[in-house]
Amino acid sequence: MEWKNVHPAGFEGSEKKLEVLVSLESKKGSKVAGIPSLRTLPRSFWDSVVAASGAQILSELSTLYCDAFLLSESSLFVFQDRIIMITCGQTRLIEAVPRLIDRLGEGAITGVFYERKNEAYPEAQHTRFEEDVARLKGFFQGGQTQSLEYPALGGYVRLFHWGLMAPKKEAARTLELLMHDLDPAVLKVFQNNDRAPRQKLSQTLQFPQIFSGFQFDEFWFEPCGYSLNALRGEEYYTLHLTPETHASYVSFETNRAFQSAAEFRRAIERVLKVFKPKSSLLIQFGHVEAPPVWVEASWGEFEVSPTQTLSLEPGMKLHFNAIGRNPHLVLPTMAAQWRSHRSGADALSNSTLE
């Protein structure tokens, strides 16, 4: 299958992400949305949600706890009481929100997270982050926006979040590793049109060893590009690769409950050593009572910044590290510039986290 949503200069790998949490029962025990689980909604409904965003479902993988849809532009994960949707290219992920509200009702939604990474071709996007936030605030008043920028790496992540209650600890746990500017030698391998070396990239990455017991669903795009979903019970991980020469990008995400900092590091180190990105952003979302798993350190050609932490109301924290492959980049002394704006405030408030 060929990519859609392609800018003349190349495909936009940087992604948008939407997470929606729901409560399907009222205080009296009645079904708020008329359904016992989001997973009972028909496939046709999820087709319509994805189509509204400008993508389509390619394949599906399921466990007793989750349905994972591989999309023409990234992924959709549906759990009993939450969804996670990630899209790239020129998709309009914000259009999924009114479709969800129309079906579930605003009263069923208890939390919303919306994220956009800096884009290689921002002029090709249908909307800007600020426009998306304006629409979200029309539905969810009192939401907050944050922007984290690491100037030395030239990257940033912008977030909108709103919630009525703190999520469950397992629902709050998410790890994102967002990687830019892959090593040219690595790009050459992934730009190869020969199908033989493409097969089962997950085995090349040694994911079966790091993430044992997971089911895999993967897809190669034409002329290049790769997506992977994997499930084991309630745990998932997903990887999306855009090997554009001038705008290469890889995202890796999981809700895996790592048992130790050593196990966590092995997984991150393996991904970094395969793709050799010039710059990466490591983001851990978690419950306010859960400590970050990452023990900051540097190894080989990668430098890791000190961990920065931001509180996300209600009841969550975000832990952040920048990772640079440039040997001349000194990350441990660099400060993250946070811009935080609470809905209804007059202006952005600026603060530096040391």
How would you describe this structure to a colleague?
- This protein is of the alpha+beta class.
- It has a single domain (11-353), classed as S-adenosylmethionine decarboxylase, CATH 3.60.90.10.
- 18% of the residues lie in helices and 36% in strands.
- The chain has 8 helices and 21 strands.
- The strands form 3 sheets. It has a 10-stranded antiparallel beta sheet, covered by helices on one side.
- A hairpin with a 3-residue loop joins strand 18 and strand 19.
- The longest helix has 15 residues, at 261-275.
- The radius of gyration is 19 Å and the shape is globular.
- Mean pLDDT is 80; it is low at 330-354.
Describe the structure concisely for a colleague.
With 354 residues, the protein is of the alpha+beta class.
| N-to-C series of helices and strands | EEEHEEEEHEHEEHEHHHEEEEHEEEEEE
In total, the number of domains comes to 1
Unreliably modeled segments: 330-354
| End-to-end C-alpha gap | 46 Å
CATH C-level: Alpha Beta
Strand order of the largest sheet: 4-5-6-7-3-8-10-9-20-21
> How does the helix and strand content classify structurally?
alpha+beta
Beta-strand residue percentage: 35-45%
Q: What's the helix count?
A: 8
Total beta strand runs = 21
Say what the CATH topology is: S-adenosylmethionine decarboxylase
The major pleated sheet works out as: 10 strands, antiparallel
- Average pLDDT, all residues: 80
